[in-house]
TrEMBL record:
The keyword DNA-binding applies. This is Transcriptional regulator, GntR family protein. CDD domains: WHTH_GntR (cd07377). It comes from Paenibacillus algicola. SMART domains: HTH_GNTR. SUPFAM superfamilies: Winged helix' DNA-binding domain. Keywords: DNA-binding, Transcription, Transcription regulation.
């Protein structure tokens, strides 16, 4: 596991996003055990309190659950995993639309560009 941290976003949020992405891409599956606070802190070379905060937030969002004496596990609720996936997709779409509007594109232009990219499999000569 390696994460390149962005100085503009709290580290615990970046770790949360990383773990969420690992879950929705299937690299971490429902019921999988996640690393302990010490393991992850050592691996990422960050303060264990930061990892602890990450895990507390993931538990608050019911993405991971603690099994007393056994560790933390990815939720077994598929609806929760789908919810995370939709939330992350919404964030990407919102960012994309905002950036496209800042470039001066209107809704129909954006839809046409995206549609063409899907149809041809490339955009500006680059394969997607």
């Amino acid at each position: 596991m390696s994460i390149e941290f962005d100085n503009n976003l709290p580290i615990y949020i970046q770790i949360m996003n990383y773990i969420k992405k690992e879950i929705i891409t299937g690299k971490l599956q429902s019921g999988d055990k996640i690393p302990s606070v010490r393991e992850l802190a050592s691996l990422l070379q960050i303060n264990p309190n930061t990892v602890q905060r990450t895990f507390q937030e993931l538990e608050r969002e019911e993405i991971v659950e603690t099994k007393r004496g056994l560790g933390r596990y990815v939720t077994s609720e598929e609806s929760k995993i789908m919810s995370i996936k939709k939330e992350m997709a919404g964030d990407l779409i919102q960012h994309f639309i905002t950036e496209m509007k800042e470039l001066g594109f209107q809704e129909q232009d954006i839809l046409s560009i995206v549609s063409d990219a899907f149809r041809t499999g490339e955009f500006n000569g680059r394969k997607s």
